[in-house]
Amino acid sequence: MFSLFPKFRFIFLILFSALVMGCSTLPTELEANSEAVITDYQEWVNQLPEASDIRLGGVIAKITNLENKTRIEVVNLPISKDGKPDINAEPSGRFIGYIDGYLEPLSFAEGRLITLVGTSTGTEDGNIGEFPYTFPVMDIYNHRLWQITERVVVNDFGPTYYSCSSLHCRNFRTMPTQGRVVKDLE
Fold first, then answer.
1. What pLDDT digit, counting tens, does each position of 14-32 carry?
2. Which residues of 83-106 are buried (b: 16+ CB within 10 A; e: fewer)?
3. CA dist., res. 115 & res. 108, Å (int)
4. What pLDDT was estimated at residue 80?
5. Please, which contacts does 172-180 make with residues 24 or more away whose CB atoms are closer than 8 Å?
């Protein structure tokens, strides 16, 4: 009878591992057309004439609706395996993406976090303020906007005393509580 417990633990461990791995997979809207996808900005810049599929993310710097397509200028941030831009990393450059049709500028506002999937089409000369800049360019076929959510984690380690009289209790803290704000992307 006791020999079944290790088997149950093993099965539980496999199921738990599958559940955890399932939570950190790439969203379907960020899947690329090929298996060889470039996810590093500098690698893309180094392979520009030959690069094919790219998945990059960052902060929207500018959006311009043209006659038949929309131009998105993005400040690149490294992305994780699940496609989320790293909001704690330093930017490593800028790139431009073109997507067919109209995008609402309020939804795709400056400062929003985005991940784009597309094919490389070369470079485009432009300016960042007065500074001349050569932007790598992609034609976008998939994208995802991200939302920053915040939650507060309170570390309540101090001793607490309760003064109770009948049904009414009061909570007295002898030490201040500490906490921190954690930012996540959804």
1. 666 655 555 558 888 888 8
2. bbbeeeeeeebbbbbbbeeebeee
3. 12
4. 92
5. 178/154, 179/152, 179/153, 179/154, 179/155, 180/152, 180/153, 180/155
